[in-house]
Write a structure and sequence with these properties.
This protein is α+β, with helices and mostly antiparallel strands. The chain is built from 13 helices and 13 strands. It has 2 domains: 122 residues, no CATH class; 216 residues, no CATH class.
Amino acid sequence: MGTNGVSESLTASKAWTQLDRRAILDQLDRMLVSPHFSHSKRYPTLLRYVVEQALAGHSDQIKERVLGIEVFGRASDYDTTQDPVVRMTAGEIRKRIAQYYHEPGHQDELRIELPSGTYVPEFYIPAEPLKSVAIAAPIVVPVVPETPAPRVSRRISSRKTFLLVAGVLAVAAVISAAWYKPWVTRSALDRFWAPVLESPNPALLCVGQPHFSAFPSGQALFPPVPVAAKPSAESDDAPDSAESQVSLHDLYRMGKLYISFWDSVTMTRIAALLEGKTKRYRLRPELATSLSDLRDGPAILVGAFNNDWTLRLTGPLRFSFLNSQPHIYAIQDQQNASQTWVVDTRIPYMRQSDDYAVISRVKDATTDRTIVAAGGVAYWGTIAAGEFLTDPKYMEEVAKTAPSGWEHKNMQIVIGTRVIAGNCGPPRVLATYFW
């Protein structure tokens, strides 16, 4: 007997007959047209690839890097730690496989599994037919006249009524279970992202930008347009705005066309998570993001000192960003003035030893939308925040000590990361706050 209550795995001997292969591929097709897979392109593509490779005898080639290259078109030298697309997609596939086989009518089918810790699929044939819930068609019973027997008829009628009510309740329970899927346990990371993922509106992913000084001190950024240069009301020409006079060269100097490479790493991680959850989203740089954009739906802000929206959001919160001296940048605890996490930017780059970040998830009073902000004091902190928000194990640690119902509360997490020779280590939790 194999796992999941099924007989010995076909993969145990790998002695597949042509009939075995056909049965496995037929089952794969059956699964991929189900609602669990049919609404996505990524999950069916990866699952089909690993199944076909296993059946072809290439199980030794089913590895994360190979899948990233062959299935998702990544470069041959891509960094799997910075781009976890394979791990995230495989995790979602495992969840959807479990949902598929838990539904009535699928328990006695040939099973295709993707065990945790490997990308090599396993195939199982049920040892015996498993019981499944089915709704039978109504049976019409002809009415035959009988000699009146009031007491007996009353008992029979009561029993029929009881059975009918019990049957209706059983059917309702099956339908309710199929709809709400109570057997699916959401991870702590899923619960953190739930307000964003469950919103009907697309999410906004807003990335910070460097703010360069474009003009000499005292010179207006957008000098006023002379009255004589403005077209009259009768003119067919569009009126000249101050910004319309800024050249492309000036745009470069103002930083409106730049984002940090390292912030883009965090942006890519979060975008991959949203895509994996089939959540629609749009990307905008911070300097091109308006308040109306933030009101359109949930927002994710990447960056801190290079993202004014993050500074505005966290300014009134317990953990906020502080730049009290020209070269000193920090995170301060506004309820405990003695607790700050500081980065001195005068220290040589390769000798920096620590960086810090704040992760916030709040229902913003101004926009009436959920906003998630992930920003570091320096860029290492932002990288660590991106890893924290896309790897389930970190949020599981937070959930262990979080108050009951934390997933419905506003929250902030302060994290730290060790920096060695210009490279950051994994994130670690330094403080949390829920309200």
